[in-house]
Prior knowledge:
Layout: H1 18-33, E1 40-41, E2 50-51, E3 62-70, H2 74-81, H3 87-99, E4 105-115, H4 120-136, E5 141-148, E6 158-169, E7 184-189, H5 198-208, E8 215-216, E9 221-222, H6 223-227, H7 235-243, E10 251-254, H8 259-265, E11 272-277, H9 285-294, H10 298-302, E12 309-315, H11 320-329, E13 334-342, E14 353-355, E15 364-368
Parallel strand pairs: 4-5, 11-15
Antiparallel strand pairs: 1-2, 3-6, 4-6, 7-12, 7-13, 8-9, 10-12, 11-13, 14-15
Family: Belongs to the AIR synthase family.
Organism: Georgenia halophila
Protein name: Phosphoribosylformylglycinamidine cyclo-ligase
Amino acid sequence: MSEPDAPEITYAAAGVDTEAGDKAVELMKEAVRGTHTPAVVGGVGGFAGLVDVSALAAYRRPLLATSTDGVGTKVAVAQAMDIHDTIGHDLVGMVVDDIVVVGARPLLMTDYIATGKVVPERVADIVRGIAEACALVGTPLLGGETAEHPGLLEPHEYDVAGAATGVVEADAVLGAERVRPGDVLVAMASSGLHSNGYSLVRRVLEVAGWPLERHVEELGRTVGQELLEPTRLYTPACLALVDDLELEVHAFTHVTGGGLAANLARVLPAGLVADVDRTSWVVPPIFELVRTLGNVPWRDLEGTLNLGVGMVAVVPAEQAGAALATVAAQGIDAWILGEVTDDDGTPGHDRDLVRGTKGVDGGAVRLVGTYRT
């Protein structure tokens, strides 16, 4: 037992400010409510979010798709620059665009923010970014949590994570089993680094002694501004392809951690190889900057960063033109990246042939040509 005159220890004295948490909720409430569709039941602040899924009764065999992710060490850049309203776009892109890869339509998303100290305005900025991105992909932000972790995180530090659920008809699931020889790869341009490989990028800048405030002529802005460019959201474009009854889509791949080849190999069946033409696009300046500034080998670069390709659709060759037009109509640059052929077992240089990635025993990706910068 404590002595009678011992000082009181309160939750606030331990570093947790529940009033700040309440203020953060008030500041973000309207942004979250703005993502809610007519299917959302109830408002903000409940123990659990509710969404009406009675429309699923029309499905013959609905499958739920789920994904969870964060944005990695990109949050360190946001914290260093004290800009927090864009990181939410990255979170939504990392989560929801994984769901659409199987052809699923997102139904809801939730978020989690852990921070050393709740600064209501900062938390509200983060959630506002998440809400803006959710609205752009037509996905209600159904719930979330902000946790204050004094002693575990510094007051200015935070991390974000999210999860989403979608639905797809069982016989409409996209993936390797649909891919055929002769299929064409339709690349969709990235908006920059997206949210992968930032440990490499930050290390390159650290060794080179480049501050985030440094203006780079090739980029047309500062390094920090380039690094905070939000991840492009591909869900609307992918759903436009899937919903077009005149189009047939066999697979998508979301180019995240591991780079283009490693992620593309995940959606190819054993016995097939995708030939990717490195000359089919110009690598954006930020990637060339990282390579030259840090003397990063091409092999390491293409196995870490997206190099300008954020999503790939695999479609029959005769529908490639229509697919390109559909993606372009969504405001995204697209081009023919390569094609799928039978794997004749011809060995390639270890840098140029990728197979067996992410635990998937599937097809292979053969990278040909030399990147254009």
